[in-house]
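[job 0412] stage=fold_complex status=start
inputs:
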Amino acid sequence: MKSIFAIVSKRLALGLVTIFVISVLIFVGVEALPGDLAEAVLGQSATPETVAAFRKELKLDLPPHVRYFAWLDGVMKGDLGNSLANGRPIIDLIGWRFGNTMFLAAVAAVIAIPIAVILGILAALYRNTLFDKIISTATLSTISFPEFFVAYILIVLFSVQIDIFPSISNINDQMAFWEKIYAIILPCLTLTMVVVAHMMRQTRAAIINILASPFIEMAQLKGIKRVRVIVMHAFPNALSPVINVIALNMAYLVVGVVIVEVVFVYPGLGQLLVDSVSKRDIPVVQASGLIFAATYVSLNLLADILAIISNPRLRNPR
Amino acid sequence: MTFFKLLRQSPLSARIGMAMVLINIVAAIFAPLICPYGETEIVGDVWLSPSTDNFLGTDHLGRDLFTRLVYGARNTIAIAFITTMLSFVVGTIMGFFAATLKGWTDLSISRLVDILMAFPTLIFALMVLSVVGTGTTSLIVVIALLDSTRVFRLSRAVAMDIEVMEFVEAARLRGERIWWLMRHEILPNALPPLVAEFGLRFCFVFLFIASLSFLGLGIQPPTADWGGMVRENSGAITFGILTPLFPASAIAFLTVGVNLIVDWFLQVASGLKD
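[job 0412] stage=fold_complex status=done
writing structure:
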């Protein structure tokens, strides 16, 4: 039990170091810009006053390391600075949108995980049959499609041909829970389709991998039914890779929302990030990028830790 | 000789994939000969339905959609191809250096790559593009560098296995330089897995550029490009006009084609191994 605590805390420390290095990279990114940032962003026609105001806002007059620690200090205290575009505090812009993004990702995950795991088990159970081939062709094509293609097909089907779901997912805090769910059905379905395809293929591979082990052959030779072999013998052993697959796909989901949010004009963090990139509102880009990266790293970390906990061989390294 | 033999034994799915890719390549090379109009020529009203003059209709500015699609093949595929090439040149050279020099060179490059790979690619690209600004050159360089981390991982692993072989040892004892070793001993032996990876990376880069263009941060108008065309025409969808689905399905068509070939290639490569 002591060793598992040591392994987990080591992974946690590594994750923290990664997030720290990422924050440095994000900061240096702005630093490494050739020429003068103020003039590059504001353009040739900027008046000296606006350039001076811009420099003051980004604290460009201070040396880099001082600025980095001032920024980091602010981030720790929850002060992310102000937006260049409208001067509002970034924390106000981001807080609500981050909640929306997590809401969308969470609903998609709740739908996607059971479907993917059940389909993966079925495909492994009936592998090399017509059912398996149809599923694997369908998932391979879904993986090859860009997210926005899936999204527009769903819009054409469900909000143009038969007008049952909205094509724009505008939600606000006054809406009740089910109203919100109704508004995000199409973006949710898009994300579900893309993630299920990945997750189901990896689940199938993980279970087939286990099916090749000697103890499964033993179970089959004892004459146990196939369903029982898969559910009672193979699945518990496949749990560790499957949990890993799920956590990795959740990380993918949180980042994958960016494009889906733009298609459905959903007020989330991804939409804000894309808007800020085209407006070159660098403080907002830095802040939302850092939040996305931290979420992604944490979910990957969670995948690692769950894999260690659910695998006795990793839990007690020799 | 062996190549043609392999080609004759290819399964149906791989042949379909090859046909799909070939159509795209032909469209890309002979674009000016195929197209009835110029790339940015305005030929009629906005979002006309398909007719004999414009056989896929017109786009949001009244340009012929078929012409834009064919020129789009040229621009989108060329940029994705150049990006993938650049990413392979950088990634392979770094990977081979890390595998042959070992020690702190290997350690420092590997750690840097680990950190870059812990960062979601799309978010990283968005952040870098917000600083350097959008443009074709910065797009190619940024994506190639981000993608070269994946190539580095593979080429390092492959070169590590080759580097311990006796013929490399012999060349070392002969006093060959590191560059010669990489070029004449390691590269020829590392080629098959790298070629298979090239197909996969191309798909990834191609979809990635399409996504960035769709977000308005990739290839800039008036250059025809598939991701950008979906974005420009996305307004049509709420009127029940299917214009944005044509470039979107062109993207899917090419990626499915490349994936089918890569699937077959991976099977052949793994079959040869055992």
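[job 0412] summary: Chain A has a mean pLDDT of 80.
[job 0412] exit 0
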